[in-house]
TrEMBL record:
The reaction(s) this protein catalyses: a quinone + succinate = fumarate + a quinol
Enzyme class: oxidoreductase
Note describing how the cofactor binds: Binds 1 [2Fe-2S] cluster. Binds 1 [4Fe-4S] cluster.
Chain ranges of the 2Fe-2S ferredoxin-type domain: 1-103
KW DNA repair (keyword) present: no
Chain ranges of the 4Fe-4S ferredoxin-type domain: 150-179
Record carries keyword 4Fe-4S: yes
Entry's Gene Ontology molecular function annotations: 2 iron, 2 sulfur cluster binding; 3 iron, 4 sulfur cluster binding; 4 iron, 4 sulfur cluster binding; electron transfer activity; metal ion binding; succinate dehydrogenase (quinone) activity
EC number: 1.3.5.1
NCBIfam families in UniProt: dhsB, PRK07570.1
PROSITE patterns in alphabetical order: 2FE2S_FER_1, 2FE2S_FER_2, 4FE4S_FER_1, 4FE4S_FER_2
Entry's Gene Ontology BP terms: respiratory electron transport chain; tricarboxylic acid cycle
Full protein name: Succinate dehydrogenase iron-sulfur subunit
């Protein structure tokens, strides 16, 4: 399969970027987007040219590092899949594929298709932890949690922090990411002591670095973990709860 690629090239954060055209005459439908980039880079290295920089790690859909735009859509054309699991089945011979970094004010470009997503880390630093008693491990049945609550918490804990929700949002909002974390932690039996403090600090950090949510819904459409859009509602819910429950301070 022949493909025409337009790939973003940018030497550094302060450099002007541009698209570089490359024709791939021997692409295979079974290739993922990342494997296609590997194939291109192998040819560049053999020719003594600089390969394109992009981030990836596990390639199993659980690490969240492989974020990039594929024809203007985070990760690729298929819904709720990371770039490492997006295959070339969606394309036909002669198609053009444009690859570029996530576009968001919160994600400054480091090089080529690698962006700095530390703004998401700063949200987690404000409340993504729980307080536990140190010492002897408690018995397994000390903390009670029913099956339905545990499953709901795990569904939201599945967020891999890839940041595609921010890149897909016209406002550059990170409410799906932050909401998933707040829902997950609020359902767990441990960490109740800092629930209110967590909500205030995480939401404050969210609003400092990201745009407002207008419920467009694009975030849930591209989320590899299929976090439901209802997670966004937890932002206001947890913030309101913290405002009326002073004992959580």
């Amino acid at each position: 399969m022949k493909l025409h690629l337009e790939i973003w090239r940018q030497a550094g954060p302060n450099d002007e970027g541009h698209f570089e055209s490359i024709d791939v005459p021997d692409a295979v439908e079974q290739m993922s987007i990342l494997e296609l980039l590997d194939h291109v880079n192998s040819g560049l290295v053999e020719a003594g040219k600089e390969p394109f920089a992009f981030a990836s790690d596990c390639r199993e859909g659980i690490c969240g590092t492989c974020g990039l735009y594929v024809n203007g859509r985070p990760h690729g054309p298929e819904k709720n899949k990371p770039a490492c699991q997006q295959r070339l089945y969606s394309y036909s011979d002669g198609d053009t594929i444009k690859l570029e970094p996530f576009r968001s004010k919160a994600y400054p470009v480091i090089k080529d298709m690698i962006v700095d997503r530390s703004a998401l880390d700063r949200v987690m630093q404000q409340g993504g932890y729980v307080t536990v008693n140190a010492g002897t491990a408690p018995d397994a049945d000390t903390l009670h949690m029913n099956f339905q609550t545990a499953e709901a918490a795990l569904d939201h804990a599945a967020c891999i922090g890839c940041g595609a929700c921010v890149a897909a949002c016209p406002n550059g909002a990170a409410h799906l990411f932050t909401g998933a974390k707040l829902v997950h932690l609020s359902m767990m039996p441990m960490g109740k002591e800092e629930r209110g403090k967590r909500a205030r600090q995480m939401v404050d950090e969210l609003e400092t670095n990201f745009g407002p949510c207008s419920l467009y819904g694009e975030c849930a459409d591209v989320c590899p973990a299929a976090i439901p859009l209802t997670a966004v509602a937890s932002i206001n819910k947890e913030r309101a709860r913290a405002a009326f429950r002073a004992k959580d301070d």
